[in-house]
Specification:
- The chain is α/β, with parallel strands linked by helices and 349 residues long.
- The chain is built from 14 helices and twelve strands.
- It has a six-stranded parallel β-sheet, sandwiched between helices. Strands 7-6-8-9 form a four-stranded parallel β-sheet, sandwiched between helices.
- Helix 6 runs parallel beside helix 14.
- The chain is elongated and about 80 Å long.
């Protein structure tokens, strides 16, 4: 049976030419058996605290790094949680990751991250690679799971938390907000403010399905209020501030009459729209009002704070981690956890 220190990796020399300290070296330095040293490193409760402290001190002295792969191959518990996110291009998903890390690391678990770039095929390959390491759980903000990706997760026999969206039926658990409801809420708010000529600027909503659901919610709520979109500009590129500025310029050039208000698929694009207005002398909201989604700090720091919806990103990460820990403890968990969203009135609309 494979155990801690039994793989060749644990005994091989490093590229520096210096021998890598093994579990045997660590046990000898701490004056304990290899089994005791291994148990102390794993933080097992029946190891005396003074023994654990001695082993940890010896590990620091020798520069010993525990070989977690060996323990995993031996069937031991993993403290890794696989995380698949579509992007780290803005602070949206780093905020989620921060909340996730805070709760997981306090409980002794560590996230291992993969980025799908909104590509379902890449997402599938990442899941396969992460599952090969036998993680304790998987967290993903799906780019649109393939049939094989779904099959992989269903057969993995571990907690799976799909984050950001509770509008879809999860494989196991979901933590997030209703993307559709957030779009509807913004439409009701803007209509209630008296705007009548609406336009939309979005990024690649065919790949970012959550943005697509927000847009559909916005459009359907407008119809309920007796309005329709007077113009839309959807650019098939990843979201960015630059894309927002470009999209706003193209939208306004294409419309025979300027809209009262522009709704953006997220705050990155809305901030770009604000920059376009500043650069061309348009007053916000007197000449054109702007609204976004996510509640990013940069939008609230603008000279005219952005009207937007705060998506509870940090709380989504924390609640996802809590769901995992509760499931691992054998506790009953909710299939869907809706953390709710907050409309920030701002001053741009």
């Amino acid at each position: 049976m494979l155990g801690e220190g039994s793989l060749a990796l644990d005994d091989a020399s490093t590229f520096s030419g210096r021998p890598r300290p093994t579990l045997r070296d660590l046990a000898r330095e701490a004056g304990v058996s290899e089994i005791t040293a291994s148990r102390a490193l794993r933080g097992e409760a029946h190891v005396l605290p003074e023994t654990t402290a001695r082993v940890q001190e010896a590990a620091r002295k020798l520069g010993y790094v525990r070989n977690r792969l060996a323990g995993s191959l031996a069937g031991g518990p993993s403290n890794q949680v696989g995380v698949v996110l579509p992007s780290l291009a803005n602070v949206v998903f780093p905020d989620v990751l921060k909340g996730l890390e805070e709760v997981l690391e306090e409980a002794g678990f560590h996230p291992v991250l993969g980025i799908s770039n909104y590509d379902p095929d890449r997402e599938e390959h990442l899941l396969e690679a992460l599952l090969a390491w036998r993680p304790a759980a998987i967290v993903l903000a799906s780019a649109g799971l393939s049939e094989r990706g779904i099959a992989l997760l269903r057969s993995a026999n571990l907690p799976v938390v799909e984050i950001m969206d509770v509008d879809v039926e999860p494989i196991d658990m979901a933590v997030g907000i209703s993307q559709t409801a957030s779009g509807r809420a913004m439409a009701y708010y803007l209509s209630g403010r008296g705007y009548r000529r609406f336009a939309y600027v979005g990024h690649d909503i065919a790949r970012d399905r959550r943005a697509g659901r927000r847009f559909e919610g916005f459009r359907s709520a407008l119809a309920e209020c007796g309005h329709a979109l007077a113009g839309e500009m959807i650019l098939q590129e990843p979201s960015s501030v630059t894309l927002g500025r470009t999209g706003t310029e193209r939208l306004l050039a294409a419309m025979p009459e300027r809209p009262d208000v522009i709704y953006y698929s997220n705050d990155d694009l809305a901030v770009g729209g604000m920059y376009h207005c500043i650069g061309t002398g348009l007053s916000v909201p007197a000449d054109v009002a702007l609204a976004g989604f996510n509640g990013l700090e940069i939008g609230q720091a603008l000279p005219v704070p952005l009207t937007t919806i705060s998506s509870g990103r940090h709380e989504i990460g924390r609640r996802a981690a809590d769901q995992i820990l509760r499931r691992l403890r054998g506790e009953t968990v909710e299939r869907k956890v809706d953390v709710g969203f907050t409309l920030l009135a701002g001053a741009s609309a």
